[in-house]
Fold this sequence. Notes:
By secondary structure, the chain is α+β, with helices and mostly antiparallel strands. The chain has eleven helices and 23 strands. The strands form six sheets. It has a seven-stranded mixed beta sheet. The protein has a five-stranded mixed beta sheet with strand order 6-10-9-8-23. Strand 20, helix 9 and strand 21 form a beta-alpha-beta unit.
Amino acid sequence: MCTGIAFGVKLATSKLAKGVGSQQLFPLISYKKQRQPLRGRTLWSCTGTGSARYYHSRGSCEMNLKDAVKSLEDLFPSSIAADWDNVGLIFEPSPPHTVKRILLTNDLTEQVLVEAITKRVNLVYAYHPPLFKPIKRLTQQSAQQRIAVAALENRIAVYSPHTSLDASIDGVNDWLVACLDPVSSKPLAQLKDDSYSLNIRVESLLPDGPLAADGLADELSKMEFVDDILIFPVSSVSKDSDECDGLLKRVSVRTSRTHKEDVLSSMYNYEPTSVECYTLDKPLRYGYGCGRLCVLPDNVIIAEIISKVKQHLKLNCVRLALGNGCTLDSAVGTVAACAGAGSSLLSGCHADLYLTGEMSHHDILDATSRGISVLLCEHSNTERGFLDVLKLRLETERILPGVEILVAQTDK
């Protein structure tokens, strides 16, 4: 039997606060290095048309948007996000645009945007992309469009990591399961290295004539899209006898599917005995991928897991569907977890307990019928708490040096 608790939800207002969309742009600020009479240290002085003046003993007090985005990309690359996702820089004001203050939020609602404007934020880091499906116009007819218009009018850039955060090491899913103290943890859906574009191996057999193999190898080495060139001798056997009739040279290279024909063209110029092509599997990116399958220490029961999860996510209540034959005192050896919505990733997964934000009714019934208990914490509750961890990491590792980092207070 599946029991649940209803959580109150504060609905977004239909319009932005009065005057938000018409606020003036932030004043342009110029920066120059000056010697300040403060204990003999060289400081960065920020001067501008506004009355504010900022000093920092290390680095500058703002970053170029392009540099800030690159730092965020290096931390959680967009290349590991799901194909269907919309990640990266979503809103970009016209250049030049600098970042002095960034606001972290799970969702960019109208309330959060008002907070960003009030706090003079230059960049919003929204876990969920504010634009997901294509839109054909920007009017005031929907919250999504109003947010886009007001953000750009107020020169606020918006960046979204979404599933790149889900799939990363030390990302949202690793944070979610940290409270379970797992003995081991691995992704439910292991990612392959998409940057591994040279995934075709082309090999040719050449007669051991003067400079044939070396000449081909030299020609191929000048191609930017070729790597890993190998030359090695191969004994050939006559069709009419079992004796070796001489040596051939095998030239083997790795290239991309796009440039396979270019490589083949060069090889055929040397009249090879044979040519073969192989498609290579992309290597796995160890530790990267959505969801987590955790092995727990011995003697952990469902009731203890519930207590740990509630404390970790700062929740008073969660929803539990006990698997057939299970009680609160049932031991749990493995937990399959997925932040947010876990139906598609967890369905069919073998584990003693599922931990996620939400699952469909029928997927829950299917899990419990197989003796798997399901612990639901509501979608955003399994994600939002990671923002505090992210803020600390951005600050301690100085990933955005000189930029003030805030966590949205109106993101509910």
